[in-house]
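Team,

Forwarding the record for the chain on the shared tracking sheet. I've put the sequence and predicted structure together so nobody has to dig through attachments.
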Amino acid sequence: MKKNFVLSIVLIITLAMLMGCSNNTSTSESSAKSKTLSNISTTAAFSTDEGSKAAVSRDDFDMDTILTRLDKSMLSNYDYSRLKDKNITLSVCNWGEYMAINQDEYFDVNREFEKLTGIKVNYKTFATNEELYSKIKSGGGDYDVVIPSDYMISKMIKEGLVQKLDYSNIPNFSYIDKDFVGLEYDPKNEYSVPYTWGIVCIVYNKNMVSKEITGWCDLWDEANKNHILMFNNPRDAFGIALTYLGYSQNTENKKELEEAASILKQQKNLVQAYVMDEIFDKVGGESSAIAPYYAGDVQTMIDENSNLDFCIPKEGTNKFVDAICIPTAAKNKEAAEMYINFLNEIQVAYANCDYLCYSTPHTGVYNLFDDEIKANPLRCPPDEYLANKTEVFINLSDDTNTYIQELWNQIKIDKSKSPWLMPAFLLIALALTIFLNIRRSRKKKQDIF
């Protein structure tokens, strides 16, 4: 009996120990699961991990080599190998010159992603939001990742052209600054992860303008005639005209839009060309003197040509946010989310930002900026100006978008650069008619005789 009693005690103790281990394991697993869910929940609630931000500084990294190759020790704890043998090709569509790729002896985002994951990247570009929208809407753009601007993201969400993200596959979203989450174009950040942001400013050649450049008014100055470039898309062009007139860039008031169209028609007589990415080469190559352009590209242009300078318009300007989305028709959603997470690795995001010269929504990258960059209004515009002088485009109603497009078509169709052009054309046509009639008359006489 004593033996049975002893065995019972031993059995009870053993069971208690096993239960204790099980509870510890369960608690540990529960804690880990809770932490994971908490992280996802935190992401969904648009918070950022202050601990992560505080831990990142320039002293932690070799800033001389961070821009040359991927240092795997700098990567987060993320399984980038899980799709390695799936033979996946990821189709990415981005703005031109808007990612650090194809550069010798410089960090190449796509090449490093391919080596790390075994996923091939098929990379394409677009020139305007409207061009990208048209491709996706028509089904002609078979993309897994796209990077449109704020108002276009809103439009594509409304039309079901982009899909919700699984943030458990994008934990690096925690690095996105709270000022860039929950914005009007995607209030719950269910569909997009901010990529870069910036403002529209003016780039000009100091040797080709006759007076100080202060704002949008200089794009309507006769002194700059035939040396002015203008954006070749209606939303940006109307945004500038509306700001110049003192109206909201997001107005749906027809009279205000018509007034903007009127001054854009007046400006046409001064404009050398309507362009987009060509601004980089035309102003940089000094065949044009002044143009609106995006701040990051302006910084790059100034770095390459010391004759160029910039102006942040006194009247105000557009603040834009470009963000990463996954189209509804994407074939490789998990791989696309892996790519988005990779873009937000600290080293990758920093190298990309250094190459692009745009402002960053990534807290880790911002903390790696030196004092010179933080003081540069092209890279880090002043908070007061951002608060009081900028607007973010929102998606306008279908009726307003249609009306703006109609007004823009009228502006572009009106080809007359001079009031004398049409009379001159008529005189030439009349002279040609007279000449042909005389020639025909002479030929008849020769046939008679």
